């Protein structure tokens, strides 16, 4: 699927100057092909593929799914955690990988105050409550099931529908416009954790800039450093995702984004998904 479409994208992109009409048509065909790839990547394609996740499931990571453990697997929900903490805090300071399963979390790590245990230590508080403990020998048995709950009839502590009701609506993903919720001050994100985060000096964000898709007629993307830095700091993207010390230095295509690289590292599984074409391709090119 990816091979031929990539070639097709390339052919369309390299096509010599045509009339506006043929260029528009070219752009439309490429869009149709790319939208197909997007649907495939999100599992909306044919039989046997994964279905598109429901709003509460978007950004859910299943841990310990292999089923060899003694405990039921764990479902980690991004919506619940990103409502309180920045991506940077977890993915840089605490050190979770941005790839499902890649961290290799062990109960002993949690008990020693790493990974989930950095917060779920039975001591730190949130809204005046102690955050329940992870995997500790001293932990209460019932509390185990607040995490080790996949396949068990456990009622979640926070109801997604009630949580989402108060927040601005988004079209895809969790059905929440996270950007607006943060901007309006409905979310107060914690960016540092005492005893875990090292004091950072804050860097000034670059000015917003336009990224031009390599296809005539395709609306440009306005990339906002300031808006991204709120969630990701600088380390969330540089140097792992964008080596970028100079704009245009990193070359990538929409197909790679659909595959989960570059912008797709976040915009296929946690931030609003690539299906939402217009949210990135905002500026019409004349
Ligand atoms: C804050 C969430 C959380 C809580 C609460 C929690 N765990 Fe865990 N636990 C995890 C994660 C994440 C893993 C790693 C994924 C996996 O292997 O299931 C894990 C793994 C384990 C494992 C190794 C895998 C297995 O299934 O054998 C054991 C044993 C374990 N936990 C025991 C416990 C016990 C006992 C409790 C209650 C006293 C508990 N955990 C409470 C998050 C939690
Ligand atoms: C409370 C901690 C926490 C916060 C906050 C957090 N994450 Fe994660 N994230 C995790 C954990 C845990 C995993 C799973 C790691 C593993 O399985 O090894 C994960 C996995 C991911 C993945 C891989 C998902 C997949 O299906 O492969 C992406 C992408 C990601 N996070 C992006 C983000 C973004 C973007 C934000 C901010 C909007 C964010 N995370 C906020 C803890 C967090
Ligand atoms: C940066 C801090 C932080 C980290 C790291 C973190 N959590 Fe949480 N988690 C919280 C807070 C705060 C809550 C809300 C607790 C409350 O409402 O009492 C929560 C709630 C939860 C809940 C909801 C339980 C319920 O009954 O509603 C689950 C499940 C959970 N976390 C699992 C995990 C797992 C698994 C990990 C590690 C992979 C993890 N968390 C890492 C802070 C964190
Ligand atoms: C969400 C990802 C993301 C975050 C977070 C981020 N950047 Fe960037 N940055 C980019 C992208 C994308 C480019 C363009 C790269 C390219 O075209 O090769 C870029 C380019 C740059 C450039 C080159 C700009 C130019 O005009 O040539 C600098 C300098 C830079 N970033 C610094 C920072 C700093 C400082 C921070 C934190 C305040 C930061 N970035 C946070 C994604 C990010
Ligand atoms: C490190 C993770 C990450 C990467 C990489 C990333 N984003 Fe984002 N982006 C986010 C998060 C988190 C938000 C907040 C909204 C949400 O979660 O849905 C966001 C919001 C946005 C928004 C809406 C806010 C605005 O600026 O108007 C746009 C557009 C956007 N991203 C485009 C891009 C583009 C284009 C790239 C690649 C050049 C990119 N993003 C790379 C995490 C990321
Ligand atoms: C997260 C932001 C984001 C979303 C969402 C997004 N794009 Fe893109 N798109 C980009 C960026 C950034 C480029 C620029 C890549 C380049 O050419 O340097 C691009 C480039 C393109 C191109 C130019 C050709 C190519 O392969 O690079 C096309 C066509 C395109 N996108 C179509 C789409 C379609 C169709 C959708 C919706 C199904 C979509 N895009 C959703 C960010 C996004």
Please, could you describe this protein's structure?
The protein has 286 residues and is mainly α. It has 2 domains: 2-48 and 201-283, Cytochrome C3 (Alpha-Beta Complex), CATH 3.90.10.10; 55-183, Cytochrome C3 (Alpha-Beta Complex). 33% of the residues lie in helices and 8% in strands. The chain has helices spanning 2-14, 20-41, 78-82, 87-94, 107-111, 141-147, 160-165, 178-183, 225-232, 254-258, 264-267, 277-280; strands at 60-63, 74-77, 125-126, 129-130, 209-211, 220-223, 281-283. The longest helix is centred in the first third of the chain and has 22 residues, at 20-41. The radius of gyration is 21 Å and the shape is globular. The protein starts with a helix and ends with a strand. 21% of the residues are buried. Residues 1-18 and 43-48 have low confidence and may be disordered. The structure holds heme C (HEC) (6 copies). The site of one heme C has 21 residues, from α5 and α6.
């Amino acid at each position: 699927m990816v091979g031929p479409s990539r070639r097709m994208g390339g052919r369309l992109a390299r096509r010599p100057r045509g009339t506006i009409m043929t260029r528009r048509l070219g752009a439309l065909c490429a869009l149709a092909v790319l939208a197909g790839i997007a649907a495939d990547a999100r599992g909306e394609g044919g039989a046997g593929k994964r279905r598109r996740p429901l709003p509460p499931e978007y950004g859910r990571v299943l841990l310990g799914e292999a089923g060899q453990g003694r405990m039921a697997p764990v479902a980690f929900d991004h919506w619940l955690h990103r409502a309180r903490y920045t991506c940077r805090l977890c993915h840089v300071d605490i050190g979770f990988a941005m790839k499902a399963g890649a961290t290799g979390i062990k109960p002993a790590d949690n008990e020693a105050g790493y990974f989930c245990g950095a917060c779920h230590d039975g001591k730190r508080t949130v809204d005046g409550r102690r955050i329940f403990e992870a995997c500790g020998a001293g932990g209460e048995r019932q509390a185990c099931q607040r995490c080790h709950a996949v396949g068990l009839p456990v009622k979640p502590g926070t109801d997604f529908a009630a949580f989402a009701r108060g927040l601005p609506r988004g079209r895809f993903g969790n059905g929440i416009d996270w950007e607006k919720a943060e901007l309006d001050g409905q979310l107060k994100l914690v960016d540092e954790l005492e005893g875990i985060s090292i004091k950072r000096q804050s860097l000034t964000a670059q000015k917003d800039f336009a990224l031009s898709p390599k296809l005539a007629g395709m609306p440009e993307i306005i990339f906002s450093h300031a808006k991204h830095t709120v969630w990701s700091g600088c380390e969330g993207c540089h140097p792992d995702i964008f080596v970028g010390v100079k704009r245009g230095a990193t070359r990538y295509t929409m197909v790679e984004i659909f595959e989960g690289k570059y912008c797709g590292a976040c915009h296929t599984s946690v931030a609003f998904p690539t299906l939402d074409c217009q949210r990135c391709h905002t500026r019409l090119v004349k």
